[in-house]
Amino acid sequence: MYIGVLLAGNKKIQALNKKYLGRDYPTDVLAFNYAEGEKKKPGNYLGDVAVSVEKAKEQAQKYGNTPEKEIAELVAHGVLHLLGVHHKGDGK
Fold first, then answer.
1. Which is more confidently placed, 66 or 88?
2. What pLDDT is recorded for position 38?
3. Which one Pfam family would you cite for this protein (predicted)?
4. What local confidence, expressed as pLDDT, does residue 44 receive?
């Protein structure tokens, strides 16, 4: 099983958030699961995780992390979403 990871700026994350989720603002992490639904891809491709490096840097300061640790935690958060773990109120 494998995933794609995109590290991008707020502008790119906002564009993805708006295009695919209808939310016109940047966020720290997005997860796109390709193992189900109409976007299903063949093989062991689970999906993509997109992380805002700008948001990660802001959050690293806030939480006392290094930017690298914050990015790693956001990637892990995205992977959990790909595996079906969601927030309360996500409708899933």
1. 66
2. 58
3. YbeY
4. 81
